[in-house]
Amino acid sequence: MLDSHQHFWKVERGDYGWLTPELGPIYRDFLPSDLAQDMRRAGITRTILVQAAETEAETDFLLEVAEKTDFVAGVVGWIDMEATDFAARLGRYRQHPKFVGIRPMLQGLDDDAYILRPSVLDSLKTVAEHGLPFDILTFTRHLPHVIAALKEVPTLRAVVDHISKPDIANSILDPWRAHIEEIATFPNVSCKVSGMVTEARADWGLADFAPYVDHVARCFGADRLMFGSDWPVCTLAAHYSEVANLARTLLSRHFGPQALRQIFEDNAARFYGV
What we know:
This protein has one domain: TIM Barrel. α7 crosses α8. The protein has 9 helices and 8 strands. The model has no long low-confidence stretch (mean pLDDT about 100). The strands form 2 sheets. The chain has a 4-stranded parallel beta sheet with strand order 1-2-3-4, sandwiched between helices. Strands 5-6-7-8 form a 4-stranded parallel beta sheet. By secondary structure, it is of the alpha/beta class. Helix content is about 40%, strand content about 10%. It is globular and about 45 Å long.
């Protein structure tokens, strides 16, 4: 199986603006040796390593880790999408065999409509021209802006991270449900079944996630869903194996073994070209 979404970080690097001591157990270094045993126990053989800091130094760090880590199949990095030389920067990273995608951290930006800035749209068009995957990290409030951007760049190959982090803790489905349904009408957009446990109550149960997984299953189907752990962020609420079992159990209500193989391996491998 291929985990489409996990992170590594070294706190001393100092560019993780969101990672503070208040986050307790994840305010420490997480590196390949910390994940290897959990992967084996869960049956995961490869991962996609995703950026967690808004610097190109982070992208360089992750690519260095990937070069030394057999199970890291690819890296989704960060590049300044407002840089006037964005195309040149992207071209430089594209030369690295394990650079497979780009992600701005939309969820944490002051401007909810950042993705619609003219310079960012121009960069999105460059990403689309290269056929490079684009990870969409958002909350529900960002989705109308994402939809508008997709209308401007309909050829963009994109994936919604963490089912766009709906308010699972309070069982709120709308307007997330309608926005997800509209995003799914773009045939080049997929969705990661990931990042859910940290949006739920501390005493979460399977039933808390069912309406959300049911909806993305209906909207995206077996061809455009992919499993991701969001490790180590997920460890704030669940063990790695629990996250994998949660996704497998809920998706098994909709899909058989062949479709589950697509969701847990083939789709992410095809999307990221690994």
